[in-house]
Amino acid sequence: MAARLLLWDIDGTLVRTGPLGSEVFDLAVADVIGEAPDERVAMSGKTDPLIVTEQLALLGVEPEPGILQAVLDRLVSRLAGVAGRLAERGQACPGVADLLTALAGVPDVACGVLTGNLRPNARVKLAAFGLDDLVDFELGAYGSDDIDRNALVPIAVERAAKALGSEVPADATWVIGDTPRDLECARAGGVRCLLVATGRYGIDELTALGPDAVLPDLTDTPAVVELLTGAR
Fold first, then answer.
1. Residue 231 has pLDDT above 70, yes or no
2. Which of 10, 84, 95, 103 is deepest in the core (most CB within 10 A)?
3. For residue 43, which phi and psi values (nearest 5 degrees)?
4. What's the CA gap between 141 and 122, in Å, rounded?
């Protein structure tokens, strides 16, 4: 039984994949449609299916299930094809490796993933930076599960309850992310939220949203461990 469930966003929170993270979307759409949109879709905090849906809309293409799935399949293939270059063009966010390692040694704490990435791509991104063994992918929820990020917390919580053998209380469950959408999905799921200013949003912007906690980054390992695992 875990006394704490920590659900980690990936892009901007745990890692930064650099331009490759967005380039693979254009390549995947072009593989299926024959062209990619000239305009760049804002991606922060969105699920992969939503990003692709918006890209197709820019091209005037209806996101029919067959077309959408074909692009998502190509997205998986395209990211796998550049997996060896992710670490060259991106980086783990400050303090992440030390923090996840420290949390792995704390009794009754379970670290899962809550991300808009497709499940295979979540693993590829974390593996590129040597972080894949520090989270439990069975406890998370992904863009593969629902296009609406706000639907992901209940999915992750249900999976965690099955895997751990009991439910973790909502006030002992945290979503850790870097965008307003991370906070929205945490609130929709009735759990707590830590926002970290390591993505596109500054600390003042994130603080103004009123999450349970805000940090500039994850470098102060003891303080973050205490925040996420201390008394409720």
1. no
2. 10
3. -110, -20
4. 10
Query: From the CA atom positions of the chain, what is the Rg in Å?
Result: 17
Number of other CB atoms surrounding residue 81 within 10 Å = 12
Closest CA to 99 of 131, 74, 76: 131
Closest CA to 229 of 108, 141, 134, 133: 108
Q: Which amino acid is at 207?
A: T
Residues 175 and 192: beta-carbon distance below 8 Å: yes
**Cα separations (Å) of 189 from 10, 41, 95, 153, 219?**
18, 26, 27, 5, 27
Give me the residue label for tokens 């693979």. 24
Q: Which domains does the chain have, with CATH numbers?
A: 4-16+90-229 (3.40.50.1000), 20-87 (1.10.150)
Amino acid (1-letter code) at residue 229? T
DSSP 39: S
For 14-69, write each residue's pLDDT tens digit.
Answer: 999 988 989 999 999 999 999 999 988 999 999 999 999 999 999 999 999 999 99
Q: How is the chain split among helix, strand and coil, in percent rounded to 5? A: 50, 15, 35
Instruction: Point out which residues pair with 138 in neighbouring strands.
Output: none
The residues with which 91 forms a beta bridge, in sequence order, are 16
Please check whether residue 116 is in contact with residue 3, taking contact to mean a CB–CB distance below 8 angstroms: no
State the CB neighbour count (10 A cutoff) for residue 210: 11
Amino acid at 22: S
